Amino acid sequence: MDLSRRELLARTGQAAAVATAASTATALTNGTAQADAGVTLTQGTNISVSRSADGKWLAMDLVTAIWVLPATGGRARRLTDELQDATLPSFGPDGRIAFQSYRDGNYHLYVIGLDGRGLRQLTRGRYDHREPAFSPDGTKIAFVSDRAGSYGVHVLDLASGAITRLTEAPDDAAAPQWSPDGERIIFVVGTATVETVTLDGTRERLVTAPAGAQLFGAAFGPGGRASYTVVRPGQADLVLGTTPVVTGQDVFGFAPIWDGDSVLYTADGKIRLRAGGTTKDIPFEATVPVRRVRRRRTRNLTGGPVKGIASPVVSSDGKIAFRALNAIHLLSGGRTTRLTDGRYFDSDPDFSPDGTRLVYASDRTGVAQLRIRDLRTGADELYAPAPGAQTTPRFSPDGTKVAYVDQDGQVWVADATGRRQITPALFQPGRPTWSADGTVVALAAVKPFSRRFREGTSQILSVDLASGELSYTEPMPFRSIATRGDDGPVFSPDGKHVAFVVESVAWVVPVDAKGAFTGEPRQVTREVTDSLAWHGDDLVYLSNGRLRRSTLDGRATAIRLNLSYSRARAPERKVVRVGACWDGEAEGLRRDVDIVVANGRVEEVRPHRGHADVDASELTAIPGLIDAHNHWHLRGRQWGARQGNVWLAYGITTVRSPGDPVYQMVETREALAAGTLTGPRFYATGEAIDGSRVYYNFMRPTLSRAQLDLELRRAHELGYDMIKTYVRLPVELQRAAVRRSRVPLSSHYLYPAANLGMDGMEHVGATNRLGYSHTVTRLGKAYQDVVELFVRSGMSMTPTLFHSRALFAEDKSLALDERTRVLFPPWEYERYLAEADSGGSSSSAAILRNWVEFALAVHRGGGLVICGTDAPLDAPATATHMNLRAMVKYGFTPREALITATRNPARWLGLPIGAIKPGAPADVAFVSGNPLQDIRDAANVRQVMVGGHLHRVPDLLAPYRNQAGVSAERPALAPLASAENKHWWHEPEWAERVCCDH
């Protein structure tokens, strides 16, 4: 795995204290957390340091605030409050400190005095301005920004405010620092080279990274030599010229400060000074407030009106088709009819122009393929079969062609004679739409701002089928289409308008025949709006689980659906005899017992006696496992119905998703509750609430308090089990979400989340707007600040141990297992097997060990570690077991590891699952062996029970074991010129197996 890709490169003091105290007092109004006395931090993870010109003071960034302390060490004084989200301080010669701040949703440069006075914002706008460095004379600040299309080195003149760009696109520069004479600036390009630039733009390359290494934190050292950090597998060294100066430490990779031959730097959680061949630590103490989490109870669905209405479309004569309860439904004449049987995954219907046929995707042949259903006769047959997945189809205006997206994000146009690729692989594109004359196909696609940071805006990508030209259009300046799913663009039937959702409401813009805007977008709705479809000159859409219709002047009416569901009945009472049982708490197994199950719950666990309805006397019963971090619908259309089977086949009876396309999520949750879909319990949220830029298709770019209210309304009315705030959401909006939410919240941040009242953090050190993490270093280590904050706040930690793939080097049995081979889609299994065959790297193994040791420190300190995998970015189900095995290999006992996948996530959810005891839901995995002695035995599942419903593994495999597959594939015709990959960001979603991305 490419570690650099994972990291993506890498008021007054009194007023700040008042602000911090105020935020502590008011952080929550819903009673979910309580104030704590505070945590004193004596170490910092990925902290940077700067020294004043007179050598008397140090400034550091710790838990996203700027602090100052005496140069000899001592108690630190905080200069910035939580909302400032400030990092990377740089002292000027007059004692002012420059830093970067994310306060308004983009990175901007600020200065503040050493005494905490004179806070001043220096840059503004929708571009990021990062990593400031004062010039030696204090008249200028060097920084990097994406304001010119890639990250370049810029200089800000403080007197005039003028900004000069010194490097040209397509550089992705980072962390500029000045030479002592102020004539040159040194910086890193893409972690691969160290270069300098003069104020007149003259460039020079000084260092090129050795093979397998990355470069960070360049600075000018003695004699003008380049100083930098070299990160290799398992080591991070501070180098001067070509000579390692600091080795055997976890050097954090920020610019060191040289004074002759002495050097000030940060490593191993500490500020260090090396001089005369010896190194000493500069101690610090900094106290931050935290709020202790109080767990809330997750609710189970009991039935009622269907809200999981996915991808509605409207025919020319007013019929509406949609997916619900694991089947395609048709609303016509006020009556709702189920069209498919729901055994497999049937999704994304679209009407032919005359309204007599439906095209949709179904995995009944084993993989998602296009099918055409004649609504008059009921005839249903394959259409233009292909070797891979075919998803999100749309009929052309003349009804002779269908546009669709495959498993790699490539868009195709198919007809009765063949298939033609019209785009390169795209990263999670939206559903296609056709212009009225059939000459243009458009869809939502992400366009990043730079290579260095992958986030961008979701724009309209248009393909001219005549010329093969591919072009991007912003829906509005610096704005994103809400999600790259069903939120547009959608051409009107007459081709004169395009509709899309931006900032949670619908907009319509006039266009020409090719889809080019001919006017300004106009807002149509003011309520939460999703999944747009045209009905003549009106829009049909979803609003919090209800179908609505609006005229273009904003007059909205309800569309009655009259569709409801009820929870599946629990099976009758049965007695299961097991050879041994672990109840989720005990130190050892209890032998030869009966588990009595009634009404879906455990009634009794007793010594075996009399008749047993199920003989599992050769097996060991353990609580069903819980995977607390996955994204069911990140590849849900490609995996289809088999995904629920694979979770169960490996003994996972509950999954939690901290981010999924909302209506697909709600639909799946309702289908599982109703028993129309086989799978584990499913607790989830919809799209994560993000900020000004996005990457994944299931993120909601949220730019204001008003829009945040709409997003929270959607969450509450659709009954989210949790809310996730994502990486570009400013702290102010994150705090507002905590105050207003009724459900648990999680994010990628530990602090100030631990003082806002957040319930958890995902991953060990996830995608972060900084480009690196304040919870784990580049070597995968965490220090006292991180461990103590997790333990004292009670926030959960979900490790998602991606590097557990390193264990393939010693055991690839899970990749060879029949359950994996049969239940994974063919292309997924092929990639997974290749990965297992390649074995693990030493870099992955070293990072994995450090990650596990971090999680173990939190766990044994009394913190809440919950097992999760980020599947399908890691493999569904098998990755759960790889995570457990990695935990045990590097320090957890088997029992401790199992507790992270049973009792702990059950506690997070507030549910009585994760245990086999009277009153608990009967969620049980029946395995061969003793997992308390050998954690590998937890994967030896033979039967599994969810709410008393018993599934045998052969039965779960049966629907897919003998699939005939796709026959009579339509030929692939010559691709359009637009299918050529000319942009670096055009890649399939699976191409970067990125650690900790969600």
Structure description:
Helix 4 packs antiparallel against helix 17 (953-961), helix 9 (784-793) crosses helix 13 and helix 14 (878-889) packs across helix 15. It is globular, with a radius of gyration of 29 Å. The longest helix is centred in the C-terminal third of the chain and has 19 residues, at 842-860. It starts with a helix and ends in a 37-residue tail after the last helix. The chain contains 17 helices and 72 strands. The strands form 19 sheets. It has a seven-stranded mixed beta sheet with strand order 58-57-56-59-70-71-72. It is α+β, with helices and mostly antiparallel strands. Helices cover 16% and strands 34% of the residues. The chain has three domains: 45-281, Neuraminidase, CATH 2.120.10; 307-562 and 970-994, Neuraminidase (6 Propeller), CATH 2.120.10; 574-958, Metal-dependent hydrolases (TIM Barrel, Alpha-Beta Barrel).
CATH topology of the largest domain: TIM Barrel
How many structural domains can be distinguished in the coordinates? Answer: 3
Q: Low-confidence runs (pLDDT<50, min 5 residues)?
A: 1-33, 994-998
Strand order of the largest sheet: 58-57-56-59-70-71-72
CATH architecture of the largest domain: Alpha-Beta Barrel
Class based on secondary structure composition and strand pairing = alpha+beta
Number of strands: 72
CATH structural class of the largest domain: Alpha Beta
- The radius of gyration computed from the alpha-carbon positions, rounded to a whole number of angstroms, is 29 Å
Approximate shape: globular
* Biggest pleated sheet: 7 strands, mixed
Pfam families: Amidohydro_1, PD40
Protein name: WD40-like Beta Propeller Repeat
GO molecular function: hydrolase activity, acting on carbon-nitrogen (but not peptide) bonds
Family: Belongs to the TolB family.
